[in-house]
Amino acid sequence: MGRLDNKVVLITGSSGMGAATARMAAAEGARVFIAALAPEESESLAGEVGGSWHASDLEEEDNARAAVQSCVARFGRIDGVFNVAGISGRRFGDGPLHECSAEGWDTLININLRSLFLVSREVVRHMLSANRGGSIVNMGSVVAMSPEPRYFATHAYATSKGAIHAFTTATAAYYAKSGIRINAVAPGLVETPMSVRAQQSPEIRTYMQAKQPLVKGLITADDVAAAVVFLLSDAARCITGEIIAIDGGWRVSH
User: Fold this and answer.
1) CATH label of the domain that carries residue 163
2) Which of 51, 101, 119, 232 is deepest in the core (most CB within 10 A)?
């Protein structure tokens, strides 16, 4: 893991992998800014890591701009971003294509892509203006690269994450000349509030012992956070346009 001494890192989430990354980044020397939907949770996490926060719906253009501006006003700049905000969508009607509702599709595409686009755009504008470079890490998913049809047939979710992978490589290619690195992490099944359905299924938990054999079960949020912190650090200064799977062996196991 690389150090983040005095780097300013904006994180678009206040729970799960976002919270784990905030704690780890702060421990590695970063000044952390939390931009998320839940005000009480954001304030609590920012207080815990000695950072600052802004609570709003980042799907709204003005809110995304205000969050980035608030971070710059508080800390003077932004060196790194972890775009972690997102949802799974079974409760909205996501599932296999023939069962997926239009509402489920639209909800997943909007929530998982729009805030990432808006925050990234504002941050890149800031980084170009500051001429300092920087690092952006996006939240992808292993299911966009290695589908699992038995338990994880959520095709709107997989599509949204595949789009994030494409967004990552396309933008990385364009902004490399400006010293802006853009990568994504693609976790397997992680023990977070978003994966409660899977966690509560004895059948899925048993299956994950073989599907993610390196951890013999679910990955921890800290496992993902460690990779994110590395990618945000100068230790990863030669890495851009990569989709890094943190999947416990998911892709190579059956």
Assistant:
1) 3.40.50.720
2) 232
- Looking at residue 35, the DSSP 8-state letter turns out to be E
Q: What is the pLDDT of residues 187-207, one digit of tens each?
A: 999 999 888 888 899 999 999
Q: Is 157 a catalytic residue?
A: yes
Q: Which residue, among 3, 62, 63, 73, has the nearest Cα to 33 in the 3D structure?
A: 73
- Name the token pair of 95: 């599932």
How, if at all, do strands 180-187 and 52-55 pair?
unpaired
- Which of 151, 157, 174, 175 is catalytic? The answer is 157
pLDDT at 1 (0 to 100):
65
Angstrom distance (rounded) from CA 65 to CA 44: 22
Contact 12, 35 (CB under 8 A): yes
- φ/ψ region of 250 (left if φ > 0, alpha if ψ in -120 to 50, else beta) reads alpha
